[in-house]
Amino acid sequence: MNYQVITPPPSLRKYVRSIWTLESRSEDTSEKAFTVMSTGAPGLIFQQDPKVFSGFEGEQLPQLFVFGQATKHGQLHSGGSFRTIGVNFQPAALKAVFGLNARELTDQNTCVQLLTKTSLNEQLVNCRSVKEQVACLTVFLQEQVHDTAADNKKLSYAVAALQQGKKLPAVLHALNISERSLERLFLTHIGITPVLYARICRFQASMALLRQGAYRSLTDIAHLQGYYDQSHFIRDFKLFSGVSPRIYLRKAIERMPGFPEWEP
Predict the structure, then answer these.
(1) Backbone dihedral region for residue 107 (phi beyond 0: left; psi -120 to 50: alpha; all else: beta)
(2) DSSP letter string over the chain?
(3) Do 133 and 19 form a contact (C-beta atoms < 8 A)?
(4) Distance of alpha carbon 133 from its chain centroid, rounded?
(5) Residue 181 CA to chain centroid, in angstroms?
(6) Which pTM does this prediction carry?
(7) Are 81 and 24 in contact (CB under 8 A)?
(8) pLDDT tens-digit readout, 51-105
(9) What is d(CA 153, CA 157) in angstroms, rounded to the nearest whole number?
């Protein structure tokens, strides 16, 4: 498989982490399973062939769809070769880009055409290259955020602080805000509570240490990331990734971060 990451233009970086492409030219038509891990952010995906991927329950996915926060891992299934292009949004992008209460898409996906009147799907189908598709996506997103972009400084601070591993009580104290008030902000703009978002951020930080080999033992990671003990770390890791850290290290083939295949 070929995985590429494209940096979004400066005008979109408040809303978009990256644009990516994933392509497989395998002649093997047997079904493959890919685990989708919890990343703490929503996204958008366009499938060149709308029949290649099926969702967590085996359902056919829309050709062009937006998905919300994933509170646990799931699996996508594909057969044969494919080409997809996608957007990794910033955590609060669903509200800013689509004017959507992010909670409506938590653990869900929906066709882009149901969120906004657009011919983007047809434009992407008719593009002659990935470069043209990226240009189409960029223009679409720039037009979407023109009138709906909202900047909530308290939310932005809380998201950044939790990503950096700060504890929720410290964040609440710094913002002089109640946990209930921050929870309302998160549910509307992020789609999950601050507590769950912090857990996913901690899982992602632990995953980064595993990928880098920057640890001596799993207990070291557990202590460094503030888990009660190694068992607590493993339980959260399984919830958000589907496997234990040891199985991930032995069997994950992760050409695209957060979207691994597995060795037999």
Answers:
(1) left
(2) -EEEEEPPPGGGTTTEEEEEEEEE-----SEEEEEEPP-SS-EEEEESSTTSEE-TTSPBPPSEEEE---SS-EEEEEES-EEEEEEEE-TTHHHHHH---GGGGTT-EEEGGGTS---HHHHHHH-SSHHHHHHHHHHHHHHHHHHH----HHHHHHHHHHHTT--HHHHHHHHT--HHHHHHHHHHHTSS-HHHHHHHHHHHHHHHHHHHT--S-HHHHHHHTT-SSHHHHHHHHHHHHSS-HHHHHHHEE-SSTT--EE--
(3) no
(4) 20
(5) 25
(6) 0.92
(7) yes
(8) 777 777 778 889 999 999 999 999 887 777 788 999 999 999 999 899 999 999 9
(9) 6
- Whole-angstrom distance, CA of residue 150 vs CA of residue 200: 24
* Side chain identity, residue 82: F
Q: Which of 248, 224, 235, 236 is nearest to 195 (CA)?
A: 236
Cα distance from N-terminal residue to C-terminal residue, the chain: 18
Q: Which two tokens stand for residue 220?
A: 């070291």
* Farthest-apart Cα atoms in the chain, separation: 58
Q: What contacts 24+ positions apart, CB below 8 Å, involve 177-182? A: 182/154, 182/158
Distance CA(141)–CA(98), nearest Å, equals: 9
Of the listed ranges 21-30, 42-51, 119-128, 198-207, the least confidently predicted one is: 21-30
85/38 Cα distance (integer angstroms): 19
Indicate if the alpha-carbon torsion angle 188, 192, 193, 199 is positive or negative: negative
The average pLDDT across 175-192 equals: 96
**What tokens appear for 55 in the block?**
């969702």
